[in-house]
Amino acid sequence: MKLAAYIEGIGLLGPGLAGWKAGENMLRGESSYQPQKTVLPPPSSLPAAERRRSGALVKLALAVGLEAIEAAGLNPADLPTVFSSSGADGENCHAICEMLAASDRQISPTRFHNSVHNTAAGYWGIATGSMKNSSVLCAFDASFCAALLEAVAQVVVDNTRTVMLACDTPYPEPLFKARPIPEAFGLAFVFSPEKSASALARISIELTEDKADSMEGQFEALRASIPAARGLPMLQAIAMRKDTRVVLDYLDATRLALQISHP
Amino acid sequence: MNPLWLTHYTATSSIGRGLDQTLSALRGLHSGLAPCRFDTVELETFVGEVTGLEEVKLPPPLAEYDCRNNRLAWLGLLQDDFQLAVRNAAEKYGRHRIGVFIGTSTSGIFQTELAYRRRNAETGALPADFNYRTTHNTYSVADFVRRCFNLAGPAAAVSSACSSSAKVFGSARRMMEAGLIDAALVGGVDSLCLTTLYGFNSLELLSSEPCRPYDAKRNGLSIGEAAAFALLEKSPQHEDDIVLLGIGESSDAYHMSSPHPEGLGAKIAMQDALHMAGLAPSDIDYINLHGTATPSNDAAEGIAVQALFGRNTACSSTKGATGHTLGAAGGMEALISALALKHGFMPAGINTRQTDPSLQLDYLLENREERPRRVLSNSFGFGGTNCSLIFGISS
To answer: CATH number for the domain including A35?
Structure first.
């Protein structure tokens, strides 16, 4: 079975990368890339109560996921999702661990429900009304490719459009030292089994042991330091509108080879 | 879907190490729940603790993975000749052709909770021996299992709260049907920690007695821990292998910690599993319910089950025996379903005294000595995530 899908929409948010349009120009080298703190938009798609309770990971996921779906001209309520994050909501995790180490261990209900790895998927359902399947994965530094493989397998096997989101946010100290993710970074794709008018690119995936591609300059620093940014070489190939082969870091010597073409 | 065969499996929880002990506890209506003495926890609740984890030693090359959750995983892998089965499969298919998909909700977070008690008084730093990647990180347990067998195929931890290790079957199915792998090692491992104990306490969802699913006077859940593993292959290897026939996955899109009141998402998951299996509700002989024993979960699930199956399908929650093993519950209960199919009985929902009269179901208070041919197992979780699995038997 050929593992291939069409990309109909892209969402991107990271340090100095405010959306796919701006990022595309930078990845193509048409404008210069200046890293700066990631700006997370308020999650206006959530009801007021959930908006107050949502952390950085939820805001990031909603921003990139909805950007990709809007670009594809689709309704998020109709779409299944695959979420991945290498560590879920780090601020919330720190707050809980701090409270549990103190004498008063009464963590709040909101803290607790925000502690699950699928917190972004849960808020996503509330924001979009989608009752479709939502898978939530983690593979440490390999989280991007774990989600990519799961999403494209779903597109092909179940013959369905699927939204894939890979999002990471930093831990505060002292966990930051143990897991130094420097900035919030998120990527999202809408994949489709069939070519449509909105198709931006076609990707075909296989497992390989070939060496993974690295990038130039600031983009390489970003790619190497944030798991969700392991997908940047794929984005750059799409931005360049060049038919090419890209190898992404996955698990140890197991990597993903992507053949990218432009319909 | 193309059927997938559970050619080998093993389960370890508070009711037993391995399948024989688990089966004998189910047959004997034995519960593993006891008053909580875990760590420094001061909560009036019962837990299903796996005893003896303090003595478990990981294989020396993987010593850096040492934490309660990976010890539980290793203890589980030591039962029922499961390691031999995985090694044989790796030899047969090649180590690149076996995927690893393990469900967990909290992985080794307990290690971080302990490390936060040992922070440097001046700098606040965590102790030097703390290893985030190999313990705390959600992927740690899947990574540990993959390295135990030196496997090199696709791998991930599935972490959608209490549906995690039901959904691993979905990931395995997609990867196998896509032709990426020939076999999958799936399972669920979740262990006791303060985050879940104090967390469920904050939601006022912990019972002060052993949990009583579907009881008229149910008053909350009891947390347990478990390690459940299965090897999935595309064809049966033994005469009485269990087969996975259908999977349904859905979302509630309703609330972060409360189920949809009419169990709408649960109903979609069950319907989709039936559809994928090509079965009608009347083809299901027994339902292993999610049945956490919280008032809202059992009400929502009961309504959904009744809407779809009517009042006459035998059902029970086995969480009165094991406690709610959270991210391991889907896997644990998939294997209880497998035991029911293989040994020809339907397990009782123990601790329950009087079933809730508002939920009109054929809820089993005693073991029923009838052979089910097809079993449906439900797993639902925080964030409104739902997964239903349907299993059958070869013959």
So the answer is: 3.40.47.10
With CB atoms and an 8 Å threshold, state whether A132 touches B383.
no
> Is A176 within the bounds of a domain?
yes
Q: Domains of chain B, with CATH numbers?
A: 4-393 (3.40.47.10)
- Identify which of B179, B256, B268 has the shortest CB distance to residue A131: B268
Question: Would the CB atoms of A118 and B112 count as touching at under 8 Å?
Answer: no
Interface confidence (ipTM) of the complex = 0.98
Whether residue B318 contacts residue B347, with contact meaning beta carbons closer than 8 Å, is answered with: yes
Residue B231 C-alpha, separation from nearest chain A C-alpha, in angstroms:
19
**CB contact (8 A) between residue B382 and residue A116:** yes
- Per-residue pLDDT of chain A (263 residues), as tens digits, is 689 999 999 999 999 999 999 999 999 999 999 999 999 999 999 999 999 999 999 999 999 999 999 999 999 999 999 999 999 999 999 999 999 999 999 999 999 999 999 999 999 999 999 999 999 999 999 999 999 999 999 999 999 999 999 999 999 999 999 999 999 999 999 999 999 999 999 999 999 999 999 999 999 999 999 999 999 999 999 999 989 999 999 999 999 999 999 98
Nearest-Cα distance to chain B for A252, in Å, is 8
Nearest chain B Cα distance for residue A18, angstroms: 28
Residues B277-295: tens digit of each pLDDT: 999 999 999 999 999 999 9
For A2-38, write each residue's pLDDT tens digit. 899 999 999 999 999 999 999 999 999 999 999 999 9
Condensed to tens digits (0 to 9), the pLDDT of residues A33-59 reads 999 999 999 999 999 999 999 999 999
Query: How many cross-chain Cβ pairs, A to B, lie less than 8 Å apart?
Result: 218
User: Omega before B59 cis (within 30°)?
Assistant: no
Answer yes or no: is A104 within a domain.
yes
Residue of A nearest to B142 (CA): A139
Distances (CA, A) of B29 to A138, A172, B26: 37, 47, 5
Are B214 and B350 contacting, i.e. CB atoms less than 8 angstroms apart? no
Do residues B98 and B89 touch, judged by C-beta distance below 8 A? yes
Of A101, A136, A252, Cβ closest to residue B113: A101
- Residues of B with a catalytic annotation lie at 162, 290, 324
Domain coverage including residue A89: 4-198+217-241
- Alpha-carbon torsion angle B172, B174, B176, B177, nearest 10: 150
Using a CB-CB cut-off of 8 Å, the residues of chain A touching B153 are 207, 254
- Supply the Cα-derived Rg of chain B in whole angstroms: 20
Q: Do A100 and B195 touch (CB under 8 A)?
A: yes
What is the C-alpha separation between A217 and A222, in angstroms, rounded?
A: 9
DSSP state of B133: I
Looking at beta carbons, which residues of chain A come within 8 Å of B384?
122, 125-126
